Amino acid sequence: MKKTLLILAAGMGSRFGGLKQIEPIGPAGETILEYSLFDAIRAGFDKVVFVIRKSFEKEFKAHFENKLKGKIEVQYIFQELDNLPSGYQVPAEREKPWGTGHAILVAKKAINEPFAMINADDFYGTSAFQEIADFFNNGISPQTYGMVSYSLKNTISEFGFVARGVCKIDSDRNLSEITERTKIQREGKSICYIEGENHIDLNPDAIVSMNFWGFHPSLFEELEKQFKLFLDKNINTPKTEFFIPSVIFNMIKSKQINVKVLHANSHWFGITYPQDKAFVVNQIQKLTEKGIYPKKLWS
């Protein structure tokens, strides 16, 4: 079965302060995204589709094209504010991208096979890619999607708040609920989310989505429907986003799909703030010393 990796890389890294998709963190200057690509290739992925902005196309391609040549099929898709259905126009005050659901939708013409979706600035680990590849071989269908999960405590930045999809799972390890919490942070020994003036504790072992999904291409038809409904309600709200967890939860509630929750033994980490970089560099160095990754990924 052909397997495609869809990488959402159109975010500008506003909290980080730069184009973090090409920030060097590996021993030979590799980016965090290169480790995902390396893991995907050795897990048997055949194609990668990058969703980027036209404004940094040249810089992005210059960094990745030679490294990936001959190793995996590569395609680029541009996520711009005006990628809207017929009859809709971008409001003048809209500056923020339309969100992860929209980013997936713009890749519709490039993908006709089961695909995994990840964020460009997250490290997911070797076993996560193998888990999703095995799921594609044995469980993916128009009615069954997959999600790689992590424990909340292993996904927190020490330097500011993060957004996480907090999940509930039934006895068959199907996803039963997902709640997007946009402001989660550590406070002393506790982890809480901020809602207005309230700081509400969360279970450190809560299962969270880190936007590592396994989708059947049947998703695109539903995305189109739900995006139009989103625009009808929110097009004039400048900062509202069309999140993929909300789409998936709506499909679960309407009994269109089940989502199998997969477990990866590898750790997640990412760069949300500039201060996160030193930690990520150290973790990559440890994995390299253990022999999980070569000192030069593409040598």
What does this structure look like?
The protein is of the alpha/beta class. It has a domain at 4-147 and 209-238 and 265-289: Spore Coat Polysaccharide Biosynthesis Protein SpsA, Chain A (Alpha-Beta Complex). It has helices at residues 32-42, 57-68, 100-105, 126-138, 219-234, 244-253, 276-289, and strands at 4-8, 47-52, 73-78, 115-119, 122-123, 144-151, 162-169, 175-187, 190-195, 198-202, 207-215, 258-263, 269-270. The longest helix is centred in the C-terminal third of the chain and has 16 residues, at 219-234. It is globular and about 50 Å long. The two termini are 28 Å apart.
Key phrases:
299 residues, two-stranded antiparallel sheet, globular, 11-stranded mixed beta sheet, alpha/beta, 13 strands, Spore Coat Polysaccharide Biosynthesis Protein SpsA, Chain A
Rg calc:
18 Å
Which CATH-level-2 architecture of the domain at 4-147 and 209-238 and 265-289?
Alpha-Beta Complex
CATH superfamily of the domain at 4-147 and 209-238 and 265-289: Spore Coat Polysaccharide Biosynthesis Protein SpsA, Chain A
Low-confidence stretches: 12-18
Percentage of helical residues? Answer: 25-40%
And the CATH topology of the domain at 4-147 and 209-238 and 265-289? Spore Coat Polysaccharide Biosynthesis Protein SpsA, Chain A
Structural class: alpha/beta
Briefly characterize the structure.
This protein is of the alpha/beta class. It has seven helices and 13 strands.
How would you summarize the topology of this molecule?
Blueprint: E1 4-8, H1 32-42, E2 47-52, H2 57-68, E3 73-78, H3 100-105, E4 115-119, E5 122-123, H4 126-138, E6 144-151, E7 162-169, E8 175-187, E9 190-195, E10 198-202, E11 207-215, H5 219-234, H6 244-253, E12 258-263, E13 269-270, H7 276-289
Parallel strand pairs: 1-2, 1-4, 2-3, 6-12
Antiparallel strand pairs: 4-11, 5-13, 6-11, 7-8, 7-11, 8-9, 9-10
